[in-house]
Structure formats: C-alpha cells, structure tokens
Amino acid sequence: MPLVKSVRGVGHRVVDSVWRLGVASRFLSMTLLQSGMSFRRFQLIVKEMFSSGVMSLIIIGVAGLFVGMVLGLQGFETLKRYGSESALGSLVALSLVRELGPVLAALLFASRAGSAMTAEIGLMKATEQISAMEMMAVSPIARVVAPRFWAGVISMPLLAALFSAMGVFGGYVVGVVMIGVDEGSFWSQMQASVDFRNDIINGVIKSFVFGVAVTVIALFEGFDAPPTAEGVSGATTRTVVESSLAILMLDFILTAFMFRGV
Amino acid sequence: MQRTTLDLWVGAFVVAGVAALVVLALKVGNLSTYNVSETYQLSAYFTNVGGLKPTASVRSAGVLVGRVDSIVLDTDRYEARVTISVDKRYQFPKDTFANILTSGLLGEQYIGLIPGGDEEVLKDGGVFRKTQSAMVLEDLIGKFLFSQADEKQ
User: Fold this and answer.
1) Count of other CB atoms within 10 angstroms of residue B63
2) Quick check: B30 contacting A, CB < 8 Å?
3) What pLDDT is recorded for position A105?
C-alpha cells in the first residue's frame, strides 16, 4: 500500500521534527543555565568571538559595500523616473538599517560561522572528545557550547551594524561620488527619514534575535549529529538550510511587530 | 591576566562594531538632530493634518526650531490637535501662523511657523490661533474643476 506508506512517512517526519524542536529547546535552556562559567572565564568567549566574529569581518564588510552600491545604482534608476533622486539617501539607509543589514549579515554569518560551529562540534563528538569531557566531569555544554553561543550572540549585532554602515558608505560612493547626487540632500533626507529608536534600535534587536537563532541551530545540529563523516556533513548542510529559513521567517514576524504603520 | 594578540583582534572588532552603531545613530539616523536643550510645549488645531507624523520638524524661516510630539483627534471640535515642542531659545508672538507645508513636491510634511506682530509671546501650553491645514491634492483638483464649470456658464 504505497498510499499508507507515504502518509506514514509524512507523519513520521512531522513527529520527528517536533521531537527535535523539543530537544533543541531543552538544549537552549541548558546552555543558558550553564553559561555562568563562560562569563567567569571570559577568555573562552573572546576566543570564540575571534573565530566567529573577527574572521567574518571581511565577508561582511565586502558584502555590505557591494549591497549598498547596488542599492545606490538601482535606487537611482528608479527614483530618477519620479525626479526624486535626492531621496536616494533615505532609500539606501532605510532598506539597509531595517532589513538588509540584519538579514543578510545573519545569512552570511550562518553560512560562514554557523556551519563551522556545527562541523567543529560534530567532529569533536565523532572523535569522542565530548565523551572524554563528560568522563572528566567537565560539562561539555558549559565548556564547549555556552562560550560559542554567547560569542555568536554578541558578534551578530556588531556585524549587522558594520554591514549597514558599509552599505551606506557604498551607496554614498555610487550615488554621490560616481553618479553625482547632491551630497547635502543625500545626507539630510537620510537623517530626516531614519529614526534612531524606530529604525536603528529595531534593527539591532532583529540582529540579536537572529544571532540567538543561528547559533542555537548551529550548536544543536553539531551536538545532535550522528558521529560519522556522513552525519557531520549532513548536520552542516542542515545548519545552513534551517538557520536561513529561520532567519527569513523570524524576520517576517519581527517586521510585522515592529513596523506596523507608525 | 595574560594578553594575547587574539584579544587585540577581538577588541578591535568590538570597537569597529560599536563605531558602526554610533555612525548609524549620528550620521544616518536623526539622533544628532534631536533637541537636547530645554523645550516648551505648544499646540495647534488643524482641520486636516495630511501626512504629518510625530517627530516631523517644526521650522520657522527654514530653521529647525522644534519637533511634533503627538497628533490626536480632539472629539470636542473634531479637529486634529497637534502638540509640538519648541526650543526654549525661540519665542513666538501670539498671532503666529502655523501652517502644514511640504518640502518639495513629494517630500516630507512639516510645520512652518510664520510670526505675526503681537507684543505678547506664546507661553508653555499655548495654542496657535491661526492655522492652515495640509494641502490635499484631491481638494485642489475638485476646486479647479468647479471653477472651470463656473466659467463655462
């Protein structure tokens, strides 16, 4: 009976994913409860911030610059039709600060740092380093997971802010320096339309939420991976797919909450 | 505590991130244009505020003198009551005109203050007597068509 089989398959996958969601929530609460040590030994967080935050600087900076430049070009082409090229600054800044900065920085962070986190923890598990820690009565969640979690959560808003700032600079280079939009109106229209509390702080809150989601997914997938070469590679793929989807869905929910026609 | 080059890199990363936030707040956002000086409140009634929004600017002779605090509908008069906070350095005569103007054809709307000649000035909580509502394009077109029809008869 192929029909029964396929229905059974769907049911199995749904139950399995709900199960994994429950384990992941328990994993997050355990990480939060056991993160005391990583704040007492802050060096652990600093080390992880280097590998996830500092090493992502180049990709974030270059990507932000080019996204801003594309926004400048495309925005100018569109605004020119309505004779309002002077609104280019507010178009570039608003789209970066509200949406593109947090979302694209989080997507890049998930594929650059999240996948590395999953692979690292998965391999630690495959080579039985995690079990060795448990044998020595060292909690792997406190020693391995919590510092990486906090490093990701701290790095993400900083990276998103850098992305937006580089993007605004890119838009300035294309719009003002290359095309020749008036510099004064570029900045003044931008300042008139971007509100500190409504736009910038909400962008920071967004990137903070994305940071939590990406690092939890990456760490959980690594911790949950079957200890084989295939298992680690599958977990790394799932990290990128799941965190990208989570970022985009969370972005819709957060946007619906934050920007309800002020 | 031992210092490592890693700490330096992470420190530089944090400084760069915070600097980006400050740049966003001051250069991109409007945090620098908020009045930190003392303000006093004035209010005005408009029959139509158009697209005016809270935090819109209040200008006199083109100079930024304050910001719009709140816009509510007054159900006693069925008019919009706009509260603005004005910088304490600037005083306005009692017969000042408050107009809702638009910067450019498609720009944002703001309140323009045109001072009159009265010797007394508006105090905190004062109300503008003379106001002019926002220009609504549909009304203008309606008036134009009406006057055209009149001419033909």
Assistant:
1) 11
2) yes
3) 95
Give pLDDT, residue A60.
Answer: 94
Distance from CA of A190 to the nearest CA of B (A): 6
Whether B26 and chain A come into contact, CB under 8 Å, resolves to: no
pLDDT at A160: 95
The nearest alpha carbon in chain A to B27 belongs to A191
Residues B94, B28 share a domain = no
Cβ–Cβ under 8 Å, residues A131 and A13: no
| Cα-based distances in Å from A78 to A87, A93, B105 | 11, 16, 17
Report the complex ipTM: 0.75
Domain assignment present for residue A13? The answer is no
Neighbours of B26 (CB within 10 A): 14
Residues in chain B within 8 Å Cβ distance of A164: 20, 24, 28
- Name the token pair of A15: 């139950």
- Which of B3, B7, B9, B10 should be substituted to probe chain A, the one whose Cβ sees the most A Cβ atoms within 10 Å? B10
C-alpha–C-alpha distance, residues A50 and B93, integer Å? 61
Residue listed under structure tokens 């996958």: A13
- Residues of chain A with pLDDT > 90, as a percent, come to 54
A21 lies in a domain?
no
Mean pLDDT score, B41-52: 87
Instruction: Answer yes or no: are the C-beta atoms of B87 and B37 closer than 8 Å.
Output: yes
The reply to whether A106 falls in a domain is yes
Residue B150 falls inside a structural domain: no
Sites in chain A below the pLDDT cut of 70:
260-262
Please give the pLDDT value at position B31.
Answer: 64
Strands B79-87, B63-74: pairing kind: antiparallel
Distance CA A83, CA A72 (A): 15
pLDDT tens for each residue of A158-181: 999 999 999 999 999 999 999 888
Residue A237 lies in a domain: yes
pLDDT digits (tens, 9 = 90+) for A92-131: 999 999 999 999 999 999 999 999 999 999 999 999 998 8
Chain A environment of B15 (Cβ under 8 Å): none
* Same-domain pairing of B71 and B47: yes
CB contact under 8 A, A204 and B21: yes
Task: Give dist(CA A3, CA B57) in Å, integer.
Answer: 66
Give the gap in angstroms from C-alpha A157 to the nearest C-alpha of chain B: 8
List the beta bridge partners of residue B39.
B87
Distance between CA A204 and CA A27 in Å, rounded? 25
